[in-house]
Amino acid sequence: MSALEVRGLSKAYGGVQAVRDVSFSVDAGEVVALIGPNGAGKTTCFNLLNGQLRPDSGEIALAGRSVVGLRPHQVWRLGVGRTFQVTATFSSMTVRENVQVALLSHHRKLFSLGKPAGRFQVEEADALLARVGMQQQAARPCAVLAYGDLKRVELAVALANRPRLLLMDEPTAGMASDERQALMQLAAALARSERIAVLFTEHDMEVVFNFASRIIVLHGGEVIAAGAPDEVRANPRVREVYLGNA
Amino acid sequence: MSGSAVLLQFLNGLAGASSLFLVAAGLSLIFGVSRIVNFAHGSLYMLGMYLAVSLSGTLGFWLSVPLAAALVAAAGLVIETTLLRRIYKAPELLQLLATFALVLIIRDAALWAWGPEDRLGPRAPGLAGAVAIAGRQFPQYDLLLICLGPAVFIALYLLLSRTRWGTRVRAASQDREMAAALGVNERRLFTAVFALGALLAGFGGASAIPREPASLQIDLAVMSDAFVVVVVGGLGSIPGAFLAALLIGEVKAFCIGLGYSELTLAIEFIVMAVVLVFRPWGLLGRPLAETRGPGTLQPPLPAPSFLLLGGLAVLLAIVPVFAGPYTIVLLTDILVFALFAASLHLLMGPGGMPSFGHAAYFGLGAYTAGLLLLRAHLPMELSLALAPLAAALGALVFGWFCVQLSGVYLAMLTLAFAQIAWSVAFQWDRLTGGSNGLIGVWPAPWLSSKQAYYYLTLVLCLGAVALLWRLIDSPFGYALRAGRDSPLRAAAIGIDVRAQQWAAFGIAGLFAGVAGALYAFSKGSISPETLSVPRSVDGLVMVLLGGVQTLSGPLWGAALFTWLEDSLSRGVEYWRAAIGAVILVLVIAFPRGIFK
Ligand SMILES: Nc1ncnc2c1ncn2[C@@H]1O[C@H](COP(=O)(O)OP(=O)(O)O)[C@@H](O)[C@H]1O
Ligand SMILES: [Mg+2]
User: Fold this and answer.
1) Whole domain around residue B272: which residue ranges?
2) ipTM, two decimals
3) In a domain, B553, yes or no
4) CB within 8 Å of chain A, chain B residues 285-324
């Protein structure tokens, strides 16, 4: 059974058909890239997967369990972590506190009135930050971080509940080329060692072809190609609408 | 009820709906273009009433109505160009606060000009009689009012859809940046739209004088009705306002016609609740775009300093050794309002929910304490202990609806709820003593000296503040703050933001109830003013004065404000207007927020 199985997913905004009859699956331990030009429907897909949007039709199953109709916080409890295209962090908190809140949620302590949140699972939080190379900045407020660093914090936060599915929307935007490679290296290693299914979108084709074991190409909300990197690279339709002369 | 009586009530409802529509349409238009919810819109309606009553004495009724409306439009022009223009880019909360300051100022101006008594208007010459409808008498003038609403609706529709000016208004409502790029002169447009909204409100008020007397309370009553209409119809939608005005107008008419006028507010509440559950943005409204973004930049919240609180407690504990009774009473008030402000701060600060109706829970605590003591004959100590639970329950009921919304919608809803609570206290004579309130709410004998009661207040208030601080620092407080910082991120890590906010509402209500119950026993009496909307705004000012992004700020803000109010209310006759003026000066001087 696949970690994520999507069948016939569709979503329209008013007159715009943002996602049309999309089907694919991602297995545990696999790193899959969702690519396509701007406006292809990648972010909309992610928002459908984690419950932020409700599909007009179609089925989404996590390890065989349907999640259509669940709200984002419920989807998260089933083991889905995500990062956002436009980073979303808690700006009034430090980097460590951002991770601590996610850990509190993971341990179902959100309504606890007990000991101060700042003292909760400091080591675990720092260990997660160390993984993404942010331990030196643990005590800094999120509001002052560089964009690439925020992306890293988001990844640490998304890992806090040991997800089975990790959704990363343009995780390396705003990073230098070697940082991109390093971050995706980490994600790929995690996928392998912890058997996490990783689905990511990315505009840097070098990153995509280096790390994705499979690629799904969206265009105008539809899947126009899917398969191993070499097949997709050779696909004439993909070359026409997206890769161009790449 | 017979068929003819039903028909008459129906017509009555249509007449009331017309006035409601005029106010709500203006409110919606102004919001559509400037994104400002004008809390003073009911005040403009009231102004229209008083002006028409005055002018009709010399000019006659028919001339007085358009003239009063024109004068209110002129007042709107002045308000827009001198005040609102300066705060279009200010934070939402400050905008709301500024327009509320206008409510205070206009009410005191009306008190000064026309006195505290209700002013009866004339009948409309030529339409003073009644016509027979289905064998019953129906006022001729009300038939005219019934036509007025649809007539204005059609006129507005034509203005907005068929004229170039209307196209500009619609363009500005839909996309402000684009409108500016197309060369719409925003300044003139904003001014004109505000004046038009004021004209409608003034017209609505002036044309209502044959039906009801002008009174000082009408401003908030009309405003909360208009808020209910706008929330039900959808903010920014004129057809929505029309539809909702009809709905609410009919609900009111039938409740009053059936002899259940106390139920009116409850039914209005239920109608609103049903609509909000099924259509959170109103019947014909659209969601506000900015409410679910990746989040806004928020400054860090400092850790609580219990050392400071302890030091303060010690200091305050030795004050009675050398202070007189006057100071003790003032300090008791300050402590009570410090707790009130701190409980509001939980919602406004970490919760990110601008409540304009927090006095409802303060009042609920006060009234419950009084009623348990006087009507249920419970001991004072038990009344004091149980009252906050009633306040928490009230906060949970109201809060459930409020947390479905955010931003200005939430502010409007909290205010409408507070007004409903006030009306119940004001109207339910048999239970609450109506406008006279309750008297004889004295503490137990061992607490009867001002000193003893001061120590009780000191312990309870500072203890409660310590608990609140602790709570803000707890996992619950962090999860609440996470929902404020970034609702998207919070939901994506398993936080049910609404559940968190709802719990915060209950807790804030509980502590406001403690403050309210303590207040009741310290004064010995309770009046509807305890839970009035101006009292809610007092709380907001306290929190903003001290700084919403700090923990101890609300305490200092409450101390400063309570002391100021105490001094002003002694020396200055129109001290509410004075407070309004202070708010305006602060908002204009610090349009980006008083403390950052
Ligand atoms: N909230 C929205 N309202 C209306 N249309 C939207 C909204 N979000 C996205 N769209 C439209 O849906 C399509 C897909 O957008 P998106 O999923 O963001 O694409 P991508 O992430 O691939 O760039 C685009 O045509 C976009 O304009
Ligand atoms: Mg995108």
Assistant:
1) 3-278
2) 0.93
3) no
4) 294-301, 303
